[in-house]
Amino acid sequence: MTDWTGFSLLEKLVGFPSVVGRSNLHLMDFVASYLADLGVPCHRLTGPEGDRQNLFATIGDPAVPGYILSGHVDVVPADEPEWLGDPFVLRCEGARLIGRGACDMKGFDAAVLAAVPDLLAMDLAAPIHIALSYDEEAGCKGVPHLIAALPELCATPLGCIVGEPTGLHPVLAHKGKAALHLTAKGIPGHSARPDLGQNAIHALLPVLTATAEQAAALQKGPQDARFQPPYSTVQIGTIDGGRALNIIPEHAQARIEARAIAGQDPRALLRPVLDSLGPDVQAEWLSTYPPLALAPGADLAQLAQQISGHPAAPAVSFGTEAGLFQQAGIPSVLCGPGDMARAHKPEEYLLRDELEAARQMVLRLGRSLSAGAGPVPQETLRSV
Questions:
Q1: Are 76 and 20 in contact, with CB atoms under 8 Å apart?
Q2: For a designed S-S bond to 124, which of 60, 94, 339, 362 qualifies (C-beta 3.0 to 4.6 A apart)?
Q3: Residue of 11, 104, 136, 137 marked active site
Q4: Is 379 a catalytic residue?
């Protein structure tokens, strides 16, 4: 049996080009084989796309409430010319481990998997679940299928730690998101005779205007000082249409997103946009996930601070799968190695020490749940 370390596991995971929207089956084959060699069975949950899977594995008794360690295995594309090497071959430069997904968030995945042999040696009174999902970068499209299957896989978990890069500081809140794809259809013709055609770009103008007006209105509140900016936002992300200046555009499209502070529904923020749609414009939801809000005094918040060794941070403005776990009734927190400022850019990296610190956090969670640590309540763990 191969003696896998956090580094070797990260090297292997980065080597799978599991770009969002593409198959991740080879990566999941590897993870399932790794766990099987350790005697850990796993459930591979194929999504409706057919070529992408979620994976769920349990160390301990699944009939007892425990904790989920959640990470996604998809990464954003790596076609930037500024990469100094193959982004899907992990490079070591001093303390830096460089590769696409090293920070966001295969580093956390590798740390969790590297901790499994030690977790198996512990007498866990409550289980630790490993949840790996797909297409998080496309708006958390994969994990809802996993969450829907949880009642058949385990007792209702006590909490979920989503290992997005936060410098191992537990983060208690994040914004939610909803995204729309708008398409307009017109009638082509020569631009000299616009009366004989129908301009698809013009058909989009009312909805684009409504979006800009909603963006300005949201700045006035409500506000939550934990976020930057402290209010919900709406923006037009892309616009495309037309073939030539002297041709009436037959097709046009735009993508619009809303990001909602805790307490607001991101879909509801786009209601003024939807209300402005004309008869020649169609709207399709691309993705949606709710905000996250965990009270500072919550048991999971206290536990995350103790096992990470870091104080909690109030909030981040990006979104994650944690809001979906919370919506399903599972308290959730963000806590993972690295810094999001390094993600989604060339030469993405994780530090060696950060990788090991994440593994140690997982081991501290295991020790806090071990039978020798004292009784583990069914609904809460106030002291570890």
A1: yes
A2: 60
A3: 136
A4: no
